[in-house]
Amino acid sequence: MRKPKGFGRFMAIAGSYMKDPDTRVRLLKAVTGYARDKGSLVRGFRHDLQALINLVRDWSSGSYNKVSKKTILLAIAALLYFLSPFDTIPDFLGAVGFTDDAAVVLFVLNVLRKELDHYEQWKSD
């Protein structure tokens, strides 16, 4: 699967979020609130989005460390992309504006599938 258009710039920004725990906490709160506010527009990928939020949250708290930094970088970049109103297809276009967000989340999930499976197994134990 090819990297979605425009995703690279969010990868670059995600590096600074990895270094700053307070910024990560604010990001996770913002993404959670934004997803809640958008309700039915994110219904199709809400579970996947929540998996990324949980992974970053557990990594940030130190409760889950069996994951590579690249995985966290990708997860943070996907969350930043989702939160940005000015991504490839602007979110103010309604349902159409969330198609690229869903594509990015699914892209990252596909890339991280094995690590996310290990994480979800750890979470369920």
Task: Describe it.
- This protein has 125 residues and is mainly alpha-helical.
- It has one domain.
- The chain is built from six helices and no strands.
- The protein is globular.
- The model has no long low-confidence stretch (mean pLDDT 83).
Specify the overall morphology. globular
- Helical amount: 55-70%
Biggest beta-sheet profile: none
* Mean pLDDT metric: 83
Portion of residues in beta strands equals under 5%
Span between N and C termini?
31 Å
Low-confidence stretches: none
Number of strands: 0
List the total number of helices.
6
Give the structural class: mainly alpha
Written as H for each helix and E for each strand, in order along the chain, the element string is HHHHHH
The number of distinct structural domains comes to 1
Rg: 14 Å
